[in-house]
Amino acid sequence: MQVRIRVEDGGEGGDLLRWLRNDPVAGHAELSVLPAEPGQGEMGVADIVQAILDDVSGLGSLAVAVAAWRDARRQGRDRATMPTVRIQYKDATVEITNDDPAEVRRVVDALTASGDGTVDEDASGS
Fold first, then answer.
1. Structural domain boundaries of the chain?
2. Residue 51 backbone phi and psi in degrees, to 5
3. Phi, psi angles (nearest 5°) of residue 89
4. Of 28, 25, 125, nearest in space to 68 by CA
5. Smallest Cα–Cα separation from 96: which of 69, 72, 116, 67?
6. Which DSSP symbol is given to 15?
7. Is 126 exposed, middle or buried (0-12, 13-18, 19+ CB in 10 A)?
8. What is the pLDDT of residue 76?
9. Between the CA of residue 82 and those of 6, 32, 98, what are the distances in Å?
10. Is-contact 84 12, C-beta < 8 A?
11. β 92-96/120-123 pair status
12. Helices in the chain by DSSP H: which ranges?
């Protein structure tokens, strides 16, 4: 399964890519950087990360690793400045704005259940 991860507002995609490559939970994913999509001039090239996963459990592990990355950035920051991360699988897109395990599980469920329809679930809070 192919998943795209985009860090909104902050240009921290390169940092997320390094985190995922070093994270034992996400280490099984084949990770690469995609060029910015046409019309996305405000985003840097490293802001779109592609992950190739073997199965749905890999998607869960990836979502946990992304939430952990966000949580690590929280120290010394105001909640309003935390980066929003969007994960896209097929035509479904979900925001990760919370590191709560129940919300991460809901994100994974929304992506896998709605693979052919657009989902705009907001896992806000925390």
1. 2-123
2. -125, 130
3. -130, 120
4. 25
5. 67
6. H
7. middle
8. 66
9. 14, 23, 10
10. no
11. parallel
12. 13-22, 56-74, 101-113
CA 74 to chain centroid, in Å, comes to: 16
Query: Would you call 1 helix, strand, or coil by DSSP?
Result: coil
- Sign of torsion, CA 81 30 2 110? negative
Of 106, 78, 83, the C-alpha closest to 94 is 106
Q: What is the pLDDT of residue 116?
A: 43
Hunting for tokens 């946990």 — which residue is that? 64
For the record, the structure tokens of 94 come out as 């979900």
Residue 121's identity, in one-letter code, is E
Q: Is 20:26 a contact under the CB 8 Å cutoff?
A: yes
pLDDT means per 10 residues, the chain with 126 residues, are 82 84 84 68 60 84 87 70 82 82 83 55 38
